[in-house]
Design goal:
Elements lengths: L1 H36 L5 H4 L3 H22 L3 H34 L6 H24 L6 H35 L4 H33 L7
Helix pairs in contact: 1-3, 1-4, 1-5, 3-4, 4-7, 5-6, 5-7, 6-7
């Protein structure tokens, strides 16, 4: 009976984690559409509520603490709950980076900037960031070790792509700044916003790593 009650609580925690992950994913999806449509005013509608995300995260943390106290799980179940506890923090940080990206990009962008060059890299960077987060969150419901490891590797690949894409756009924007110093602040702000996408991919790898730890043990922190 105790096991069944624990499994119900565990599934509830998983579903709540997926819900707050979806908040961030939906915001990134809306931002991607705005960039594809070159409708930068629509970015305002893509912003998510960090307050709502934090409240939901705190509620999950409380549920995890309660589960630890009531059921005193061992081995894999304990690793899983500890991982979920850390994942809520990673999602809040990803949410903060998402909000920062949208706000800074929206307020910094103007028709004076080279839209084509910026979007040539910003769109694939955002796509890769989104895929890394979606893939890491999908691991939560995985029950096969091989599938978890495969998805973890896919997240790592996407994170590496975001690093490469950011390096390329940084290089190109620095060239644009050299040609037009009057717009240097705006270009630097755009770079700052895109850097936050790279950080979201870092958070995605952390989430995937925590879920891999929950499955097979090992080091809880990435080296």
């Amino acid at each position: 009976m105790m096991l069944k009650v624990y499994e119900t609580r565990r599934e509830q925690i998983q579903n709540e984690l997926l819900e707050i992950g979806d908040m961030v994913i939906e915001s990134l999806n809306a931002a991607l559409k705005a960039l594809k449509d070159e409708d930068f005013k629509a970015l305002k509608d893509a912003e998510l509520s960090l307050k709502k995300l934090t409240i939901s995260s705190n509620n999950i943390d409380n549920s995890i603490v309660t589960a630890l106290a009531l059921y005193q799980p061992e081995a894999r179940d304990l690793r899983e709950l500890v991982s979920y506890f850390k994942i809520t923090n990673e999602l809040v940080r990803a949410g903060g980076n998402t909000k920062g990206f949208i706000k800074i990009f929206r307020t910094s962008f103007s028709d004076d900037l080279n839209t084509k060059t910026i979007l040539e890299y910003a769109i694939p960077l955002l796509k890769s960031t989104l895929l890394s987060l979606q893939t890491s969150m999908s691991i939560i419901k995985e029950s096969t070790t091989n599938h978890i490891e495969e998805k973890y590797q896919r997240v790592v690949v996407e994170e590496s792509k975001t690093d490469d894409l950011y390096s390329m756009i940084e290089k190109n924007i620095l060239k644009l700044i050299a040609k037009n110093l009057d717009l240097s602040k705006e270009y630097f702000d755009i770079l700052t916003s895109l850097r936050k996408l790279e950080k979201i991919s870092d958070r995605s790898v952390s989430i995937a790593h925590l879920l891999l730890f929950a499955e097979r043990g090992g080091e809880i922190e990435r080296k």
